[in-house]
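Researcher: Let's do a round of design. I'm pasting the structure tokens now; please hold your answer until I've finished.
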């Protein structure tokens, strides 16, 4: 059965359609001029490209020639509320996990993945007093991870099933945001967490756990965060979408080449200890990438898993999820 988040997404679809029509159609079938864009993102190092571009002023600089005079952003704890906001028409572009996108598309979201942000990069961290040697050791434990339908929830449940562990009966999985989950393991309220970086590095630095399994060991090169554009932007402002992809590529490449500066930018925006961020960069198994073609199989596989878990009605195709044309144009320019 679908979780409450996805029922909310379904209810918001009608509102999103009304919002989109009012914003982009002048009433005579002509598209109105677009002057403002709203971005959604999460406070994870997975999405460092967005933060670097924001800090450098590249979003404003690169989009000004296309008539964009105002850029706003909204920070979300996880992907489910971020996608609910996109369904409601509150954000135009999202840095978000691929799995919440699938759930939102199934509920009627008009949007497509236009680029990749990163792959892998989450860790299963268990408390110091718990010995982990195999998935069997997790039986009877309480594990905090992101809410139903997110990358972490989807990947964790699928990995447990593949290792003979019933995620509904053999373990107690609790949906939480990164802050609540970090506090929960520090207080012993949960035995383990499965979270994206830098949360694992924070927990380890505070002596409250150790990495038992990296997400790349659960599924090699699995898709994680992606860049999503609304259907309105794609249809009515393709030049802006292409520039968004170019700026994303620029910021990703800069982050890879200037990791100390990227760490400082993340610290300034999110107030996580700088040494913890640098330790996260040094120890995570994630990679910042941009080409959407490399994650197609992984994302389509997520739709099969989510269908089996009851999160969506049926598996989806790549064409229902992706629009590769903007990335192809951006790298060819």
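Researcher: That's everything. Go ahead.
Model: Designed sequence:
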């Amino acid at each position: 059965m679908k979780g409450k988040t996805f029922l909310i997404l379904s209810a918001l679809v009608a509102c999103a359609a009304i919002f989109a029509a009012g914003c982009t159609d002048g009433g005579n079938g002509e598209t109105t001029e677009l002057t403002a864009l709203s971005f959604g993102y999460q406070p994870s190092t997975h999405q460092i490209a967005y933060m670097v571009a924001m800090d450098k002023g590249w979003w404003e600089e690169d989009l000004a020639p296309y008539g964009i005079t105002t850029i706003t952003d909204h920070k979300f704890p996880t992907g489910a509320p971020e996608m609910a906001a996109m369904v409601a028409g509150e954000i135009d572009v999202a840095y978000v996990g691929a799995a919440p996108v699938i759930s939102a598309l199934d509920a009627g979201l008009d949007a497509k993945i236009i680029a990749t942000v990163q792959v892998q990069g989450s860790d299963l961290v268990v408390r110091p007093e718990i010995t982990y040697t195999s998935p069997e050791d997790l039986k009877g434990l309480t594990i905090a991870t992101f809410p139903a339908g997110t990358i972490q929830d989807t990947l964790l449940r699928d990995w447990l099933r593949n290792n003979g562990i019933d995620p509904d009966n053999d373990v107690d999985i609790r949906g939480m945001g990164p802050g609540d989950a970090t506090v929960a393991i520090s207080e012993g309220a949960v035995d383990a967490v499965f979270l994206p970086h830098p949360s694992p590095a924070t927990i380890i630095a505070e002596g409250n756990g150790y990495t038992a399994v990296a997400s790349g060991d659960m599924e090699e090169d699995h898709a994680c965060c992606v860049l999503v554009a609304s259907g309105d932007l794609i249809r009515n402002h393709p030049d802006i979408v292409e520039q968004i992809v170019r700026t994303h590529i620029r910021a990703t490449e800069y982050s890879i080449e200037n990791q100390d500066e990227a760490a400082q930018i993340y610290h300034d925006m999110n107030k996580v200890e700088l040494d913890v961020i640098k330790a996260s960069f040094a120890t995570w198994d994630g990679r910042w990438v941009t080409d959407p073609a490399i994650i197609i199989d992984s994302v389509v596989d997520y739709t099969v898993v989510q269908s089996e878990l009851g999160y969506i009605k049926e598996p989806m195709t790549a064409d229902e999820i992706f629009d590769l044309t903007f990335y192809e144009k951006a790298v060819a320019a």
